[in-house]
Structures are given as C-alpha cells and as structure tokens.
Predict the structure.
Amino acid sequence: MTDTYARTTNTWRNWAGNVTARPARVESPASVDELAEVLRRASEDGLKVKPVGTGHSFTATAATDGVLIRPDLLTGIRAIDREAMTVTVEAGTPLKRLNAALAREGLSLTNMGDIMEQTVAGATSTGTHGTGRDSASVSAQIRALELVTADGTVLSCSADEHPDVFAAARIGLGALGVVTAVTFAIEPVFLLTAREEPMTFDRVTADFDQLVTENEHFEFYWFPHTGNCNTKRNNRSAGPAAPPGRVSGWIEDELLSNGIFQVACSVGRAVPAAIPSLARISSRALSARTYTDIPYKVFTSPRRVRFVEMEYAVPREAAVDALRELKAMVERSPLRISFPVEVRTAPADDIALSTASGRESAYIAVHLYRGTPYQAYFTAVERIMTGYDGRPHWGKIHTRDAGYLSGSYPRFGEFTAVRDRLDPDRLFANDYLRRVLGD
C-alpha cells in the first residue's frame, strides 16, 4: 500500500485515490539537519509544509500545495536497547520492515494494526491501532520521540522530557512538527494462536463482552445483508509454532480475501442489486481455522482490494447498541454494502487526541470499494456514531470539525495549546487541520 506521486505532473495521490494534492515542491531530506533547512527555506518562501508517509490515510491529513516532505531517506533502526527494552527507529521506516527486523533480533511490538505498509510516523501520527483487551494502539507503545519544530528546533520528548509535548505528539496529526524518530517499547518475541471462526451476528453481539474479556485480542467482521460474522481471537501461546499451510494460507488470505473478493466487489459496483447475494456467498466462504505464529504474522493481513473507509470509536459499553442500530439502518435502506463491517476494541490510554483517550473504546469501521459512491452510507453511519459520542479516526473519512471534537476530547485544549506554542505561524497547517483543530 503505497502512495502515488507523479513527478512529471507534481500530483500526489493517496492509496485509495480519493485525495490528491499538487505541492509546489517535494523534498526528501536525508538527515535531521537537512530537514531543518527544508523547513527554514519553506518558511522564507511563505510555503506550508506537510510530511507524508505511504498515503494510507483516507483524509487529506498530508495534503498540501506547499512543500511535501517524503521520508524515504529517513529509514532504519537507530538503536535497540535490550536493557530498557526499546527500539528507536527513523520516522520513514515502514512498519513491515520494523516488524521483520525486530523478529530477526528475537523481539516484537506488543500489539499492532492489521496493515503494516504505513511508515512508523504516519501510523502513529494518525492513531493506527489493532484490537486488544489490555494492549493499546501503536502510539501508546511510544516511549520517546524526536520532533523538528517550525523554527528548526530538534525536540526530544518523553514522559520525563517535555511531557506536555509527549502527551500530544504521540498522535500529532502532523500539526506540531515533523517526527524524525520514534522510540517504541518492545518485548521478547512471542507466539500468538489465532482462532478464526464464523459466528452469527446475534451470538456475537449477545456474547460481545464475554468474548472481549476472555481473549487478549478479539475482533469480528459482520457482512451486511446477512446475519453472518467472522470472528478472530488472538491469544499468547506456549507453542509450538504452527503457521497456516502454504496452500491453505494462500487460499484464505490471497484467493478468497483478495482475489475473489476483488472480483465480487467489481461485480457489485457494476450491478449493485447483486451485492446481497454476493455477501451471503462471501460470508460463508471463509471457514474456521487455527494457527500459531509470531505476532506480526498473526496480527497483520495483506489488503490488496482498495477501498475507502470511515471508522468511529465509541465507548465500549455502547458498541453493541451502535452496531445493532447500524445493522437496522442498512436493512431498512436501499443501500447495497459490499464490504464487511469491522469491530475491534482498545483499553483507555493517556494520549491527548487518541480515540481511546480516557475511555475504554470499541471501534466500528465501515468500508466501500474504491470508486463506489460512499457519501450516503458514511453519512448515515456517522449520524449513528455521533449519537454515541463517537470519535472519528483521524486518518479516515469523516465530517467532524473542531467544534464537535473539542467537546468529545477532554484534553483537546491541551493539544491546541502545545500547537500554539510550537507552530504559532501554522507552518504545518492545511485545510484538514483547520477543520479539525481550528485556527
């Protein structure tokens, strides 16, 4: 999942293709000093600055008509501290490279999302998360970070050093400066046993609290127009490792989840009336399976079918009510939804703009195949989620503004105060930040 940048036309596109930008220039600094010089020249030229990762955000978080900073040359592991059990990594390093490098060293992050194509800075700046009863988002695993601010200052922050900046910058939206390095907590590599199992919607929702409580990592997918779900439970295992077979794994993860699903989505876009029948077939195609492997091979999955997405975090106790309301809305509407709805959870954390800030949360994510009109569906979903004080994922489509978000985040004012101090002239502003943070 990479962004698209056409150098001949100076046009940048995100992975989903729903956001484009035409920056005045593109820079790929190879060091912190070079980055500081890029910021100085941009300020002198009156240009705004935005760093961009792999373009997997569905919002215009990174869009700019000024200077687009690509982190291609700011990659690699700076240091592994086995005494402190941390790894410090350059901001442009893709998560897939970090995961593989840590595994070679017998180490791992504790939790991660289901996609690992993003850069570490892009993933953490927008609040990328997986699912977990006790372990939280990728950003919650940060122990320190390095940030180049608007005036070129290189700022190191942690819980002990500039703690107010640290509380904000772990999910900073690119509004506070350019992240150049991130230090994560790590642990010795471990094994996870994944148990994937079809289950009815009524059973999943009735047993939701029990399923979350009894498993370290629980998630499920509901297939609209059906009463069917697919569940996944990941728990630590003493082993031995028993990864999916090469053939069976290819059938499940590539042929069914990507190849045939791509065909089904294409047919559904061309003939929407066929979607309910396709959904019933798709929901029964994936069978139960159990396998055991190292974390990133269990947590993450290939995602080759391109889509657009909206995701809201609601208080965990509201998850089932919100999901049932969503299902009822789909059933009484003329909408035809080709993608399953994904449900995950996270414990509360202490990051100012985390969607789980100060409250245990459940995430409800809706998707549509790229190129399919999504406004009617997403508008209806958003109306439901905001009724439960939902918080939109910062990197996924939503229409909320600073007026709504300041009421939903108790620490919103802390974040904007740090922004006012670090970027008073709004070098890192763009239209998206003006909407969600205000001026």
About this structure: Residues 160 and 330 are 48 Å apart (CA to CA). Confidence is low (pLDDT under 50) at residues 1-8.
